[in-house]
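Quick illustration, no need to memorize.
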Amino acid sequence: MSRLLVVPSRGSRLARLSTVFALTLACAGATTGLLSGPAAQAQTVSAGSLAFSGDEGDYISGGQSYSYSPASGDGLNVFASDDHSHISVDVSGANGDWWYLDLAAPGGQALAPGDYAGATRYPFNSASEPGLSVDGNGRGCNTLTGSFHVADVAFGPHGYVQKLDATYEQHCEGGTAALRGEVHIDNPAPPSELDLGVSVAVKGTASTLNGKATIGGTVSCNAPATVNVSGSVTQVAKKVLIKGSYATTVACAPGTPAAWTATAEPTGTTPFQKGDAEVDAQATATDPNYGDTVTATQTAVVSLARSKSVS
């Protein structure tokens, strides 16, 4: 009987997912239950455990018992798809073992407490089937059948897994020998998503020396972030449209708005002048907890005063 050799990927759980996706696309005719949307960031499991044992003749366990937990010095990481249909747990044992557990609900449904019978190998399970896979230490099933029971599960934003209590059973290659195990995860409450704000000051300057407009404002945040502020300055003077773009970067810390200042150079030959101008501002930052891009915008009328300074 042929066996699947699983090559370890110790550096990144997401790298393993990329390999799985490539294998999935390469399997012609296979109906898959893939992650919905981009892969989430893995979270370190602060409290919990993963354990399994196998019957004599089970290829994955070799008939042995295994148990891992952060309290024993083992590394556990977990993440879920954004739609909560799939949870993945990986183990880096203190003794050098490495294992992966995947649990997926059928048809992109969110995982919820209940029984999931008729599972087949994730991610090659059909849309009507739950997905399951326990593999690692160089061993994996080519095909499998199994089931799992979710006793409790709780999610946060962007695939954060706060709680998971589940048991599972799988059989490789249609065999009767079984691998049975359980997983328990109890992470802290999920951190807040990045909340970003941007404002534009109602006063700016137009340089009489180089024709540039200097504008500014503030950005606010609920978590430390490097914020990119960009936009455009538009003015109409004597029936001439004057426009220029700007960009700057500012470090934002919670509690106190951070000031930003930027200079826009006119794209044509007509300089910015004293008077009102429309300023569009867009603030963009990466959420430090979840890795997604957060954006805030504002448009304001800014009064430009003459200035002899060089921006």
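Helices lie at 13-26.
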